[in-house]
Design a protein that fits this description.
It contains 14 helices and no strands. It is mainly α and about 270 residues long. The longest helix has about 35 residues, at about 50-85.
Length: about 270
């Protein structure tokens, strides 16, 4: 059996199958988007990018994605700390619920936000009495992005906290360091690679969100229209080249983010 597995022909076939699968599922569709974006010529590509509605949608997506990422980094790090450092009733259930956004269709998440914060809801009506609205405005988009990206920072920071040697903290306390000094000098540097990579993954995921956002955003150009919804609208308007041009912008940005994450993780392993 072992001899058969080590046979060069089987190994070559296994590697070829994996590479072919990766090429067909990932590389080919991405290559197709880039080709489609330039199918009408460079001038049409440039016009699609500089179109006011398009670049406003991209800039709005980046702005709201950054806001949701900053919130996720802060809250996600705190949740990871609590789940790792403390033992309390319901901890296992809470730890399981962290991954719920991965399991739920994003449209279901958007529907939950709509029902919870919409005009007919208790919270929505209270917000209207205070003079502001949540659903169909930018706050709802941020909340939708928060929901779908919620697990990334938590799951990136948790393993680092679990691997942290308690002796390092004890040594810091023995040398007279306060809890604040120990956190910033000992614990935070160990958590930082996870915070950065988790935050970047959350940001990259927020840029691409569609299902939850389309239900709770007003989709008003320049105000609540984000890039993914704009791309969908361009497809519906029979303008695939324009949709592909904006998609290329998001793809390129996501590639840069993933490259940075990989660089940070490699440096973290060397330290």
């Amino acid at each position: 059996m072992t001899t058969w597995i080590r046979h060069k022909g089987w190994t070559w076939g296994f590697r070829s199958t994996v590479l072919l699968y990766f090429f067909a599922l990932i590389v080919l569709p991405i290559f197709g988007v880039y080709v489609q974006s330039f199918s009408a010529g460079w001038s049409h590509f440039a016009e699609s990018i500089v179109e006011p509605i398009a670049w406003k949608a991209v800039l709005l997506t980046i702005k709201l994605g950054l806001i949701s990422t900053l919130i996720n980094v802060l809250i996600g790090t705190m949740i990871a700390w609590v789940l790792t450092k403390y033992r309390f009733p319901g901890r296992t259930l809470l730890n399981s619920l962290v991954d719920l956004p991965f399991a739920l269709p994003t449209a279901v998440g958007g529907l939950m936000i709509l029902l919870l914060l919409g005009p007919g809801s208790l919270i929505g009506e209270a917000a209207e009495k205070l003079g502001f609205e949540i659903v169909f405005h930018q706050p709802a988009i941020v909340i939708a992005m928060l929901f779908v990206t919620f697990p990334f920072v938590i799951r990136a920071v948790q393993p680092l906290l679990e691997e942290l040697d308690p002796l390092e903290e004890e040594a810091a306390y023995t040398l007279g360091a306060s809890k604040t000094t120990t956190f910033f000098k000992v614990i935070l540097p160990s958590m930082l690679p996870g915070i950065i990579s988790g935050g970047m993954l959350a940001f990259s995921r927020a840029l691409a969100e569609f299902g939850a956002v389309v239900l709770v955003a007003g989709n008003i150009p320049g105000r609540t229209l984000i890039a993914s919804v704009f791309i969908f609208g361009e497809i519906e308007s029979d303008n695939p080249a324009g949709a592909a041009a904006v998609s290329v912008m998001l793809l390129t940005l996501s590639f840069l983010i993933l490259w940075i994450i990989n660089t940070v993780q490699q440096r973290g392993r060397r330290m």
